Amino acid sequence: MAGKDSTLLDIDQDPADQLEFQDIPHIHGSEKGPRDEDGQTHTFTTFPAAADDSEDEVEGKPQLLTDKKQPSFWTFEYYQTLFDVDTIQVVIRILNSVVPRPKSNYLQSYIRPNPDLYGPFWICATLIFTTAITGNLANYFHTEGRDYEWKYDFHKVTFSATAIFSYWLLVPLALWGFLWWRRSSAGYSFLEILCVYGYSLAIYVPVSILWVINISWLQYLLVILSMVLSGTVLVIVFWPAVKEDDKKSVIFDPVRDFPLFLVF
User: Fold this and answer.
1) What integer pLDDT is reported at residue 2 of this predicted model?
2) Distance of CA 188 to the CA centre of its chain
3) Is the pLDDT higher at 43 or at 230?
4) How many percent of the chain have pLDDT more than 70?
5) Cα–Cα distance between 86 and 78 in angstroms, integer?
6) Which candidate, 122, 133, 222, places its Cα nearest to that of 168?
7) What would the pLDDT profile of 176-194 be if each residue is shown by its tens digit?
8) Greater confidence, 254 or 244?
9) Residue 99 gets which letter from DSSP?
10) Are residues 59 and 163 in the same domain?
11) Vertex 82, ends 76 and 83: CA angle to 5°?
């Protein structure tokens, strides 16, 4: 029995030994604590570096876009970029070319940085046909009931195309040459000026259709109204280019637009 009791006493001492044994990982845990903290500190210091890399990547995207090689003037890709617009952009540019906004520059707000020739080309083409068709219709209504054999005048199409495309190409070229000669600080390119003048013709499309109404005072009122609206938009656009000029050389665009409607 005594031996068994001694055995039981040995068993009773085991928990104490186990308690002393359990103190060892507690000590090692305290020793590993600073190491773990060092590891966490090291991980924390590397996190901002990754954030800086992402910021550099984001900031570097515009530079990559600007450094992109532009296609040559003699390649098809160069002219393809001039027609790279969607319907929403064209509609917005047309609407804002009709309504003058004194506090907003049409070219800087809606044309840059992507001037196009798609909208201006089709505006000019549409204006050619509406001008020729309505011009013949107006002539027909004017001679109706008279002893006159009416014939369709195909020369109106040729005359309209010559007048409209000449205006669209030559006037912006002359203005760009003038600004270049005056060393204007506005920095308007020929393509931007060409785009602005092309969209400024959009208001004349509905006006040319309304010219079918054979009322002289209404016809001239529509012409004057369209000239004022279109000319005001152009003056607002190009005024910054000449406001610092000592001579204040400003050409009044509404007066310049009047010869367009001689095609009627």
Assistant:
1) 47
2) 15
3) 230
4) 61
5) 18
6) 122
7) 988 888 787 778 889 999 9
8) 244
9) S
10) no
11) 95
Comparison of pLDDT for 10 and 182, the residue scoring more: 182
Please give the Cα distance from 156 to 145 (Å, whole number).
23
- Mark whether 159 and 227 lie in a shared domain: yes
Helices 190-200 and 87-98: crossing angle in degrees, nearest 10, is: 70
Q: Which two tokens stand for residue 152?
A: 């369709």
Q: What's the DSSP call for residue 154? A: T
Please, what's the b/e burial string for 172-205 (b: 16 or more CB within 10 A of its CB; e: otherwise)?
Answer: beebbeebeeeebebebeeebbbbbbbbbbbbbb
Question: How far is 159 from 89, CA to CA, in rounded Å?
Answer: 30
Q: Does one domain contain both 32 and 88?
A: no
Domain of 26, in residue numbers: 1-68
Print burial letters for 113-140: b (CB count within 10 Å at least 16), e (below 16).
eebbbbbbeebbebbbebbbbbbbebbe
Whole-angstrom distance, CA of residue 108 vs CA of residue 192:
10
Radius of gyration of the chain from Cα atoms?
39
pLDDT at 130 over 80: yes
Mean pLDDT in residue range 47-65? 46
Are both 63 and 110 inside the same structural domain? Answer: no
**8 A C-beta contact, residue 156 and residue 136:** yes
